[in-house]
Amino acid sequence: MKKIICLLALYAGSFYHSQTNRFIYELQYRKDGSEEYRQNLMNLDISPKSVKFYDQKFADYDSINKNANQSVSRYSTKTDQVIERAPDSFKNKWYRDFFDYFVVNTNDEMKWKLLQETQEYNGYKLQKATTDFGGRTWNAWFSNEVNIKEGPYKFRGLPGLIFILEDTDQNFIYKLISNKKLDTDYDTKDFVETHYGKTAIPISNEKFNQYIEDIYENPTRMFSENIKNGQKATFKNESIESVEELNKKKSMLQNGIKSRYIYIEKDKEPSFKTK
């Protein structure tokens, strides 16, 4: 059978001599119990120096900026899944964008159970493996025809590239849909290592959650300071000119904070308390 995803040509003894190999995953994800999925395309960039996973739109906007020779377009992650790690490592830098820019260092070693179950996918024979991670149980389908022990987000360590990954509730579903070989070591410094000039602030996950929870408790604070200083605040293209008018938006702001991300690691998500 013809292999629709033509991967093997990239790896016939020459993978680690290439610059960047990009694998593009389709991600469908939803809140627990919801029927409606969000969708994103995600890039997995693998080079001899690093492995990076991020929203594909970052690269799309980066191309616009490079062609214009200036930062004319900016994008913020919709997934909270911006990751960097060294090759063959479970130690990740997890970049988090929430007003400021942060990096959480995590050690995410996974214990996989390999099963005998197989399936065909785009001409590749895939084998099933399972693991528990982030408060969810996951099924991965990998191919040992492609000798790369990587996959989407923080998932890695199987004897081949992960093609399909999903939790058992199917709240997160990744499917490898294409790949390309880039001639250069793709530069992500404007949107992964930094966020358009904002340096990533080291923080623990606990302190990051506390930061979000504090904003949730008083979401009008940062806007009200601007208004008190004689500036206007803008929310969803609506101009707000007084603190009283801003306070009426509190519930809407809180809902926006609460629903901004669907947290893949539900054992690490913030606790939003309603008073």
Relative helix content: 10-25%
Mean pLDDT: 89
**How many angstroms does the end-to-end distance come to?**
59 Å
**Category by helix and strand content:** alpha+beta
Total helical segments: 7
Share of β-strand residues = 35-45%
Radius of gyration: 21 Å
Could you tell me the number of beta strands? 16
Shape: globular
Looking across the biggest beta sheet, what order are the strands in?
7-8-9-10-11-1-2-3-4-5-6-14
| Number of discrete domains | 2
Give me the strand/helix succession. Answer: HEEEHEEEEEEEEHEEEHHEEHH
Low-confidence stretches: 8-16
- Largest sheet composition: 12 strands, mixed
Please tell me about this protein's structure.
The protein has 275 residues and is α+β, with helices and mostly antiparallel strands. Helices cover 21% and strands 37% of the residues. It is built from seven helices and 16 strands. Strand 2 and strand 3 (51-55) form a beta hairpin. 27% of the residues are buried. Pfam families: Porph_ging. InterPro entries: GLPGLI (IPR005901). This is GLPGLI family protein.
How are the elements arranged and paired?
Layout: H1 8-11, E1 20-29, E2 38-46, E3 51-55, H2 56-68, E4 82-85, E5 91-98, E6 100-107, E7 113-121, E8 124-133, E9 136-143, E10 161-167, E11 172-182, H3 189-193, E12 194-195, E13 198-199, E14 201-202, H4 205-217, H5 221-228, E15 233-235, E16 238-240, H6 243-247, H7 250-259
Helix pairs in contact: 4-7
Pfam family, one: Porph_ging
Protein name: GLPGLI family protein
Organism: Chryseobacterium shigense
